[in-house]
């Protein structure tokens, strides 16, 4: 596959755009990091109405903004993920910059070794290869967690999406069945999570090197000895949802690390909804990933 030698973006500022400096547009509205703005400025690769404009000059409604990025602008311009079969790729949304896929349960998010195949990112790489594009991982889901997964399609939007995640401007809602009956209709779990020194696979409340973690939940359904909850993360710690609910005494159904379920029961944790601002625009999308059959089968058994 021929690798891209540049990435171009063109946007016409909307009629309700408030006049501001080009620098403010790039950094405050579009979340470009300072070093990329410097590279665009130094190379005169930021054009307004087809002409180079210093970034301290104002831009106005109707102006046409063109940005050109080069591989030298990035530490890792190419993801170099080995393409695998694209048969399992279930696309919830796709544009020139990014895509959101409904990750299947049991599939790893990304390869951990050079040349590794079989992960979601390998499948997406095969889907993108005919378009001369590559996938770049933004966030990850545990192997047994299904649902909406955000993937960048060029290196320019990677730092933008990472910053949107960090600043909680990308909103993710998970669905999960937990054991027992939660008494409160909603709540905030605020408990630090650290490493479990007895089992390196696990995390625990107040474990080694703890970091504060906050999880908001809302009860969706009550069933006999089980509760369906919608969960939103205010922090992003490893196994956060799983550890927090286990710490409350309501572990996730099917959790192989934190619950005592039969090995036949799969983890019932699903990345259900994703709302995000779109890079180099003033729009946002809200996406819903269909709930896997394992959820319906479990509820049918209750």
From TrEMBL:
It is an enzyme of class 5 (isomerase). One of its GO terms (molecular function) is RNA binding. Its EC number is 5.4.99.-. It comes from the Bacteria. Keywords: Isomerase. Pfam families: PseudoU_synth_2. Gene3D superfamilies: Pseudouridine synthase. Residues 97-246 form the Pseudouridine synthase RsuA/RluA-like domain. One of its GO terms (biological process) is enzyme-directed rRNA pseudouridine synthesis. The active site is at 142. Belongs to the pseudouridine synthase RluA family. Responsible for synthesis of pseudouridine from uracil. This is Pseudouridine synthase. It comes from Secundilactobacillus silagei JCM 19001. The gene is rluD_2.
